[in-house]
């Protein structure tokens, strides 16, 4: 045991304790919601990178956190893992997620980094057996090191492509070994800064081939989890190939991967793309590629990805409404890709941030389930499109030609009249549940 969280007891569902005590007021893992335990709906995961590896910097300031495990040795990597699993025990969440660089020190060579990685994977595996927390997904950090400054799969240097492929192979092996339920590819620098030095067609082909190899290797090793892509727009690269869900779907179709790869969708990235979170979720569900989510929020007065913990129940409710409409999570879950503010220095802050976020998600889930059960939104949607159920209307989408439709309109009887979309009424409806 470490003493980092000394004095902080495991957090339980205790809605009536005083406000200054750490407790879940809304998240009750065993509460039944829409026929399933709340824990099984939400499938919470802690992000190793923001919780244990991030030093508290931002684009305009350096490290503010002082953690006893910060450093590049295997002993400190093991200490970091010890603290992580102590936090998992305090929170009781079922899952966690990692990048390879979060959990192992960088070696002087690829071989040394691999040895460090494999050693810490075994250490984490032993702690998983003892503690019961599972791996939601693993991924490779192909963006922080200077070798990735021009991308990984899309890099103009073939040696960087090869290094990246080897790294993903090792990370997929480790995810499989730990029983991970998904593997995520996040292309933080898969894009370009200027067309003056960029071959778009070549880089897109490289990215497609890279993903095909990942899918092939998944099947080769018998990994049953989902391969997920996490879209992100414009940060840090201005023009990223995985801008949003719709962009990624076009990419998957081009390379014949639409039945092999799903989406891990982040609230903050949706906002940066000019969308709402629920828009991205609904788009993925409509295209049949919904997989998992990263739950956080952005500061709407900042133009970058601030990765704050969620605190807006109406936003979260609309997100989980789309998740439930899509059938809920299968291998996916709710990963808190969120970090403390730079001034939140204390161990208690890290626990409190997750506790509050889990409560917000619980409130959102219950509101979403209540809306679905009530059926008001779906009834309004069905009424709005009811005209398409008529035989003549259906024929316009299946068999009619332009000249046939023109003849029907010219013959009279078709005189479109505008109808209210009732947006304010529907917004008032949502407010009843949140």
UniProtKB/TrEMBL annotation:
The active site is at residues 99, 102. One of its GO terms (cellular component) is cytoplasm. Keywords: Carbohydrate metabolism, Cytoplasm, Isomerase, Magnesium, Metal-binding, Xylose metabolism. Mg(2+) 2 binds at residues 266, 269, 305, 307. It comes from the Bacteria. GO terms for molecular function: magnesium ion binding; xylose isomerase activity. Mg(2+) 1 binds at residues 230, 266, 294, 337. Binds 2 magnesium ions per subunit. Its cofactor is Mg(2+). InterPro entries: Xyl_isomerase-like_sf, Xylose_isom_bac, Xylose_isomerase. PANTHER family: PTHR48408, XYLOSE ISOMERASE (PTHR48408:SF1). Homotetramer. Belongs to the xylose isomerase family. This is Xylose isomerase. It comes from Roseobacter cerasinus.
């Amino acid at each position: 045991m470490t003493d980092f969280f000394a004095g902080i007891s495991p957090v339980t569902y205790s809605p009536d304790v005083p406000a200054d005590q750490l407790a879940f007021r809304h998240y009750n893992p065993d509460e039944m919601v829409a026929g399933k335990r709340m824990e099984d709906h939400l499938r919470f995961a802690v992000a190793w990178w923001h919780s244990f590896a991030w030093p508290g910097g931002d684009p305009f300031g350096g490290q503010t956190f002082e953690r006893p495990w910060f450093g590049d040795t295997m002993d400190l990597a093991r200490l970091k893992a010890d603290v992580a699993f102590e936090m998992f025990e305090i929170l009781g969440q079922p899952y966690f997620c990692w990048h390879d660089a979060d959990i192992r020190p960088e070696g002087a060579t690829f071989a040394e980094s691999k040895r460090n990685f494999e050693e810490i994977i075994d250490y984490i595996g032993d702690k998983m057996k003892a503690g019961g927390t599972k791996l939601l997904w693993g991924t490779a950090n192909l963006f922080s090191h200077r070798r990735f400054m021009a991308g990984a799969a899309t890099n103009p240097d073939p040696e960087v492509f090869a290094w990246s492929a080897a790294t993903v192979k090792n990370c997929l092996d480790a995810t499989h070994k730990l029983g991970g339920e998904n593997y995520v590819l996040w292309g933080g620098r898969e894009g370009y800064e200027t067309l003056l030095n960029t071959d778009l067609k070549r880089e897109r082909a490289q990215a497609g081939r890279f993903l095909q190899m990942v899918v092939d290797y998944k099947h080769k090793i018998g990994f049953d989890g989902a391969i997920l892509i996490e879209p992100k727009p414009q940060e840090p690269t201005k023009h990223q190939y995985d801008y949003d869900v719709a962009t990624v779907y076009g990419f998957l179709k081009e390379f014949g991967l639409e039945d092999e790869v799903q989406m891990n969708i982040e609230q903050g990235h949706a906002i940066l793309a000019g969308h709402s979170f629920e828009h991205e979720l609904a788009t993925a569900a409509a295209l049949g590629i919904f997989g998992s989510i990263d739950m956080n929020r952005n500061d709407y007065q900042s133009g970058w990805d601030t990765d704050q913990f969620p605190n807006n129940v109406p936003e979260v409710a609309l997100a989980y409404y789309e998740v439930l409409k899509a059938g809920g999570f299968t291998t996916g879950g709710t990963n808190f890709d969120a970090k403390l503010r730079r001034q939140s220095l204390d161990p208690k802050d890290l626990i409190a941030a997750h506790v509050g976020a889990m409560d917000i998600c619980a409130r959102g889930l219950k509101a979403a389930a209540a809306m679905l059960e009530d059926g008001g939104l779906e009834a309004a949607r069905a009424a709005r499109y009811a005209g398409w159920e008529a035989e003549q209307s259906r024929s316009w989408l299946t068999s009619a030609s332009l000249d046939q439709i023109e003849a029907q309109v010219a013959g009279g009887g078709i005189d479109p009249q505008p109808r209210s979309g009732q947006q304010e009424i529907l917004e008032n409806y949502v407010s009843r549940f949140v």
